[in-house]
Amino acid sequence: MLKVHNLSVNYRGTEALNSVSLAIHAGELVGLIGPNGAGKSTLLKALLGLVAMHAGQVLFEERPLVHQRQRVAYVPQRSQIDWDYPVTAWNVVMMARTVRTGWLRSPNPRSRQAVEAAMQRLGVWDLRDRQIGELSGGQQQRVFLARAIAQDADLFFFDEPFNAIDKTTEAVILDLLAELKAHDKTVLVCSHEWGQALNRYDRLLLLNQRLVADGDPQQVMTLDNIQRAYGENLQPSERPAEMPFFC
Amino acid sequence: MLDWLLEPLGYQFMRNALAVGLLVGVLCPIVGSYLIVQRMALLGDVIAHAVLPGLAIANFLRFNILLGSFVSGIFSTVLIAWIRTQTRVKVDAAMALTFSSFFSLGVLLLRVLGSRLDLMAILFGDILSVSRADVGRSLWVTLLLLLLVKLFYKELLFYTFDPAAAEAAGLPVHTIYYGMMAAITMTIIVGMQTVGVVLVIALLVGPATTAYLLVKQLHRMMLLGALLGVISSLGGMYISYYLDVPSGPAIALTSFAFFMLALLFSPRQGILTRRRPLRKP
């Protein structure tokens, strides 16, 4: 179980996250939503120790998560990557095995098998020798997911995996999320989605600096919660009052 | 033709200069590749100028000037990282500030401390000044850095491609960053003698950028870059010898000529050779 206690992050003098507490169980697929600038990516980064916490604690199975980073697979937003970097899809996926392989060593056959299996699983094996810039957006996303799978992690953080991808990739990702869930992995997905798509998550976390709501999608996406997170001006239009934000 | 090539080898200073040129030609593009893929090419220029205060102080104190340069160069990268992380100031502004202030301090110190170092030689390189000891030192630095690149290739690839994921996976990214800065600074100090602080960036960035247009993988970019680096470096020195021009500019322009050739004729990305999108009728 991933447990977060009173996590606060200050970013250059402004408050990015205020006392966020949450718990995610193994086998749970959790969506993290909120307006732009709500601190969604910052929360993922704070959990991983990539941005400094002002206060709080992040535990995975009762031990600090930063001490067991090998168990977390993190897929950053596509915009953080330079897609012109001279590297092939195979080498990107192989990065997952860097820490496990250890300093001064070359990847062993098991690592090669893990990389091949992950690339096969996500349908990018045939693209392994291509430079990543030559792939489509959806293919690039699948290469990054293959990297996450090849790491043999227990905890998965995905930052906007559904952003600007094709239908095939969306289906592949959904299938993968279901599989991870079935294998009792803990999955946290930061997302911009809206409407029906949110029903795919077991639970939603609605964030705007603070945790505004935490519960199953129907409970979270109420008009009251949405207005608290996105501002009072947001009005539902032509939707039944009890389910204002589902299509 | 053979005479033309062999004649300069009759002089000890040219043999030394060509030996260092060969080493620098291999080393600069390999280390410089890391700057290019991180979009930090100008950082090489900053460090090259930032070594000057250390050089001036070490010279005044009769201390090892290479060590002085090294400390000063590293200090500039620490300052840039500090400005960037502690404030809203972006990396380009932090680099420009550090560059100009360190360089000014260096020029000032050279004057105030009454140094007899030749500023022009420091700025533009002086192949006449390369001694046998310099060749030996350059050889050791080159071998050391090539070995380190080979040993830590997979970690450096991960870090330079996706620093956030590399840190999340538990790689010691700060150590890697400063290790890389130290390697770049050492490379610059070795390169300084032949091309000078103003133009060492040409060898760090030129051949590797040309290779970047031609190949798809980092290690190939390094290998092809090293080949082009050697040709540019040696070619530039022959031009310098026969036309009696400073070695630095001759090397920098030779390297740029290769870049222009690749830019125009690269099979995939050449302006004259790449496939154009079909025009609509």
Could you characterize the architecture of this molecule?
- The complex is a heterodimer of chains A (247) and B (281).
- Chain A is α/β, with parallel strands linked by helices.
- Chain A has a single domain (2-230), classed as P-loop containing nucleotide triphosphate hydrolases (Rossmann fold, 3-Layer(aba) Sandwich), CATH 3.40.50.
- Helix content of chain A is 30%, strand content 24%.
- In chain A, a hairpin with a 1-residue loop joins strand 9 (203-208) and strand 10 (210-215).
- Chain A is globular.
- Residues 238-247 of chain A have low confidence and may be disordered.
- Chain B is an all-alpha fold and 281 residues long.
- Chain B has one domain: ABC transporter involved in vitamin B12 uptake, BtuC, CATH 1.10.3470.10.
- In chain B, 79% of the residues lie in helices and 0% in strands.
- Chain B contains twelve helices and no strands.
- Chain B has helices at 2-6, 12-37, 41-60, 65-86, 91-112, 119-124, 132-151, 153-161, 163-168, 173-214, 218-243, 247-265.
- Chain B is globular.
- At the A-B interface, strand 6, helix 2 and helix 3 of A face helix 8, helix 9 and helix 11 of B.
